[in-house]
Amino acid sequence: MKKCTFFVSLLLLATTFAGCNSEKLYEASINYTIEDGVIVLSEPQRQEGQTSLLEFRAEPLDTVRVGFVGLGMRGPGAVERFTYIDGVAITALCDKYRERAEEAQHYLRAAGMADATLYSGDEGYKALCESDDVDLVYIATPWQMHVTIALYAMEQGKHVAIEVPCANTVEECWQLVDAAERNRVHCTILENCCYDHFELTTLYMAQQGLFGDIIHAEGAYIHNLEPYWQHYADNWRLEYNQANNGDIYATHGIGPNCQALNIHRGDRLDYLVAMSTKSVNGTKLVKELMNEEECRQGDQINTLIRTVNGCTIDMQHNVMTPRPYSRMYQLVGTEGFANKYPVEGYTFKLDQINKIAEPGTLPDIENLNHHTFAPKEVVEAMMEQYKHPVQRQLVDGIPLEEYSKRVGGHGGMDFIMDYRLIYCLRHGLPLDMDVYDAAEWSSMGELTRISIENGSKPVRIPDFTRGEWNKIDGLTHYFAE
Ligand SMILES: NC(=O)c1ccc[n+]([C@@H]2O[C@H](COP(=O)([O-])OP(=O)(O)OC[C@H]3O[C@@H](n4cnc5c(N)ncnc54)[C@H](O)[C@@H]3O)[C@@H](O)[C@H]2O)c1
After folding, report:
1. Ligand 1 pocket, residue 163 CB under 6 Å
2. Which of 131, 202, 470, 474 is surrounded by the most beta carbons within 10 Å?
3. Does residue 441's CB lie within 6 angstroms of at least one atom of ligand 1?
């Protein structure tokens, strides 16, 4: 067994590499070794005074005072949604551009709420984070600013909720984990797709064992961003795509998969391999909009992940070519199957057995019925029966699912996410998505890039819980009552 172990630091790549010169190098954000052909990033020790945040409960907040940072295409919708949640005071609005913060004020006025304090400029977020009038900092800025703002907020003792992905590198993921653990605050990921009605219902079916042992899952972000590129503030998104290969927007796909697979609640992401296509449309785009010759990101990124318990996840990322929008969401279990795109449907083994053959007769090989989804009426009845308790949670006497459809935000899932965040903070409950979810899901960007840039070598996925991934038995959505 040849063990080629060498530490590579960002600035000393060339000089420390003697003896292993057949290996390709990637400028990782953190030191790594290669063990049995697997790239293993170093995992920093937990510092003294830091403790685990698994199942963390913060002091209940009667009213959650929220400050929003980043009011471009995404942020204002969140401000509006929060005006529909009881126990919220929107005390601060911040954008680099003053007029965007001013503009968002109208949602508060329309809802009869008090005006918020406005902050602006590149570093306006600092005063917002320092304010005694804010409990939760809600971050919807460009990715490049997420961690800077979140760390500053957490150091001021504020809870943070960060848009996706929360961080861009593995090093940044550790910084989030460490800051949250050190300051004993929540750091959650705003992964709205975990609250999509189909995903939530399917999660509950999975939790009730309907799919048996889930052995495989699929997830993706397939969204042709052609109409949007020119609307991101200061071109941050295309700049990021141009400079970085890898699945840089993996959380919509992997988030719901990890919840169904109980990741860091009984199973753990072990390693991944990733591969990218060449860049064709991306290269044309950056030439046209940025006058750049090269787009580092391939038009499509494909990733395979294996978990410690032997499950696999297949992920795709494609924002460059004309494909129908898809998050692929699929669960393959020993007893059943769920699929969201392009058609929502379920297949269950028991149902199939009845259709295959009468006892004692040979199966009819021409009969393909048992290879199709369960009939529509069955699916509808099951989806009603297996609604997740979160969908049934009452808001003013109305089930949250129905309430969320009235408020809106990607069909309601954005509202459910926001509502659950505030509900858990008000009742001092563990959040549905913790800092370890935020780190695991966000780390995909750099980990896939490392694999791609090293000839699709396997890359070990860090254990952000530092050995506690098997301490909790399954994902729980908490309720006060
Ligand atoms: N979950 C979802 O479905 C979803 C959908 C869209 C966007 N997003 C995420 O939301 C975030 C924002 O995306 P967007 O589409 O609104 O981009 P955007 O460019 O429209 O908005 C970003 C805003 O942040 C502001 N900003 C930049 N630097 C700042 C700073 N230092 N301080 C304060 N404000 C600053 C910009 O001026 C801009 O108004 C991204 O993380 C994106 O991935 C998530």
Report:
1. yes
2. 202
3. no
Cα angle 122, 126, 128 (rounded to 5 degrees) comes to 110
- List strands edge to edge, sheet with 64-69: 117-120, 88-95, 64-69, 136-139, 159-162, 187-189
The pTM assigned to this predicted structure is 0.94
DSSP state of 184: T
Q: What are 265-287's pLDDT values in tens digits? A: 999 999 999 999 999 999 999 99
The pairing of strands 136-139 and 117-120 is: unpaired
Site to substitute for ligand 1 among 96, 137, 241, most atoms within 8 A of C-beta: 96
Tell me 30's DSSP state.
S
The residues spanned by each domain of the chain are 1-42, 194-390+447-460
**Which residues make Cβ contacts (< 8 Å) with residue 391, sequence separation at least 6?**
197, 200, 201, 399, 400, 401, 416
Looking at ligand 1, which residue's alpha carbon is closest to its atom 37?
96
| Residue found under tokens 């052609």 | 226
Q: What is the pLDDT of residues 134-183, one digit of tens each?
A: 999 999 999 999 999 999 999 999 999 999 999 999 999 999 999 999 99
Give the full edge-to-edge strand order of the sheet including 330-333: 32-35, 38-41, 459-460, 269-276, 301-307, 312-318, 214-222, 330-333, 336-339, 345-348
**Third-level CATH fold of 194-390+447-460:** Dihydrodipicolinate Reductase; domain 2 (3.30.360)
Whole-angstrom Cα distance, residue 88 to residue 266? 34
72 lines ligand 1 (CB under 6 A): yes
Task: Check if 144 has its Cβ closer than 6 Å to any atom of ligand 1.
Answer: no
Query: For ligand 1, is residue 141 a contact (CB within 6 Å)?
Result: yes
Is the beta carbon of 238 within 6 A of some atom in ligand 1?
A: no
Strands 187-189 and 159-162: parallel
Protein residue closest via CA to atom 38 of ligand 1: 72
Q: What is the Cα–Cα distance from 257 to 191, expressed in whole angstroms? A: 12
Spatial distance between the Cα atoms of 423 and 292, rounded to a whole number of angstroms = 46
Q: Which atom of ligand 1 is nearest to the CA of 125?
A: 32
Testing ligand 1's pocket by substitution, the residue of 68, 94, 95, 240 carrying the most ligand atoms inside 8 A of its CB is 95
